[in-house]
Amino acid sequence: MRTLVDIVRQSLATLWAHKLRSFLTMFGIAWGVGSLLLLVGLGEGFRSGQEKQLANLGQDIMFIFPGRIPAVAGSLQAGQTYHFTYDDYLAIRDEAHTLRVVSPVINREDIRAVSDYGSTNGQVFGVAPVYNEIRNIPIGTGRWLNDEDNTQHRRVAVVGWELLKNVYPGRPAVGATLLLNQVRFDVIGVLAKVGQDGNNGTNARIFVPLETMRDLFPLKGDNVENAVSFINYRPLDKAQHLRSKAEVHQIIARRHRFDPKLEDAFEDWDTIENSQRVDKIFNAMDYFLGVVGFVTLGLGAIGIINIMLVSVTERTREIGLRKALGATHRNILTQFFVEGMFLTMFSGGIGLVLAGGFMTLLGQLPSPEGFDTPRIVPMSAVSAILSLAIAGITAGLYPARKAAHMVPVEALRQE
Fold first, then answer.
1. What confidence tens digit (pLDDT) does each residue in 369-397 have?
2. 25, 103, 231, 373: which has the fewest C-beta neighbours closer than 10 Å?
3. Considering the entire predicted model, what is its pTM?
4. H-helix or E-strand containing 114?
């Protein structure tokens, strides 16, 4: 134990005696580790930001909009636009076996919302109470729509966060009344802000029960009797989302009497598929940033190896002198191992702290939508420090071992 302590003390004294050389070695290690961690951390920040942005919509959401039935010989409906109906929704709800939950949406943007304090043109959504199990609907105050509100056709509304500025500026909205095209509604809930900057469309919407919307504000236009704007749903199994999509297509196509394989007949927005596509993009980005980081790490390793090789070669006479004074082969290798280990671990720690500090500083700055604060990836930190440690220790031990096997007289003759 005493011998090991003496070796450590002597190793540190040697490093201090060659301050410039030690500094350059440590700088190379810290730079390599810090660069790799920062690059990988930025990639993870982008990934995390995109995941949060998708989560603002909800979990595993699938949208389906009506399209145009393509021209088909013998078909009277060919080339016509069509609308989903309330009965389509009921058929999907009752017949589909791969869906967790489904809700139609009746969307009107021409409804005037008036309160005692202000007015605005709001986007009014008529939805089923289960809509909040599909989309991200965070309630700030009050409550969300329930089954009784829907079945009893109650005139109640949940107001988006953004609309409060115009219709209830600085005042409580829950319990107040709101006129929608001169029809009185009671406000039962207010949504919390959705999204980092509040620019999510949900913030500017008013939600009312589906049955109430069908009674008071049905869709306008030709051939829109009993129509709904679009349908939202969630699959039972995220991995089987394509099967769920095909099942919904088949039900609607059967009811409207066209081929479910007609691509133009539907417009789908599959957030699961989008999420998988984003994951592939960011996996490629992580790979690219990782390669760039490891190239930087490799350059740092080359610098360390060069410095260590020169350092050990210059100390061949010292090794010969120590052997002449009784130092064993093991003592010499242990000293260089300790020096290499101290340099790499200490310098790697400095690189880790600097990268973490820089990421923390970035976290204090306002980040754009879709970008999250970079974070240290533990596996990258361990890999970076260990790879540089192996490079530095190996570069020191190889020439040290060679010199330690020399006869002391020969080692003393080295220039």
1. 556 677 777 776 777 677 766 766 676 66
2. 373
3. 0.66
4. strand 99-114
